[in-house]
Specification:
With 203 residues, the chain is mainly beta. Strands 8, 9, 10, 11, 12 and 13 form a six-stranded antiparallel β-sheet that branches. The longest helix is centred in the C-terminal third of the chain and has 9 residues. InterPro entries: Exosome_RNA_bind1/RRP40/RRP4, KH_dom_type_1, KH_dom_type_1_sf, NA-bd_OB-fold, RRP40_KH-I, Rrp40_N_euk, Rrp40_S1.
């Protein structure tokens, strides 16, 4: 069975299965493409590795959305992780992926050896995936691309629950998820949604 070779963006919002060709990079010069969950590059093509709906967000980030609870890390994902161990140079963090993630002790705004954060086991962290592949543990950072803390770091108090990766992406969708918009009209709250299927809410 031959893989389909659609034009650019032709399969966005359509159902794809493993092996489907999503993009032909030979026809896309001088463009940067970011790949999320369920996709991989094979020579000059981008192919699906899992079944679900192909989604696209600006600028040019593609992923396959489904209801799986198993999270596969991708670079630039925002995640909620739980510290499970501490090392001299790294915190080991559970992000619901196949492997534990590393969070270097200097991956914080203004981080130096003199002001290393003190996280106990069980601490909830909101972080960004900066390195991810199938053969190495993912690496996290509590800074945005400009080196600022932004919204990243330790999350205190509040309530944490787990959901599917598909629902997590829906909560992060633009425009604002109708559920969150309706809730915001009734209550004042803070929320952090991880693409790994963890959600933190503080009222």
């Amino acid at each position: 069975m031959e893989s389909r070779k659609p034009q650019r963006s032709a399969l966005v919002d359509s159902y794809v299965v493993p092996g489907d060709v999503i993009l032909d990079l030979a026809d896309m010069t001088n463009q940067t493409i970011k790949l999320g969950a369920g996709l991989r590059q094979d020579c000059d093509t981008i192919q699906a590795t899992s079944a679900g709906r192909l989604r696209l967000s600006k600028p040019n980030k593609y992923w396959v959305e489904n209801s799986q609870k198993r999270y596969v890390p991708s670079v630039e994902d925002t995640v909620l992780g739980i510290v499970v161990d501490t090392k001299p140079d790294n915190f080991l963090v559970d992000i619901k992926g196949p492997n534990l993630a590393f969070l270097p002790v200097l991956s914080f705004e203004g981080g130096t050896r003199r002001n290393i954060p003190k996280f106990e086991i069980g601490t909830l962290i909101y972080a960004r995936v900066v390195k991810a592949n199938s053969i190495m543990n993912p690496e996290l950072s509590c800074m945005d691309a400009s080196g600022k803390a932004a919204e990243f770091g330790q999350l205190k108090s509040g309530y944490t629950f787990e959901t599917s990766t598909g629902l997590a992406r829906m909560l992060l969708s633009s425009p604002t998820c109708p559920l969150l918009e309706a809730l915001g009209k009734k209550l004042s709250f803070e929320i952090a949604v991880g693409l790994n299927g963890r959600v933190w809410v503080c009222f």
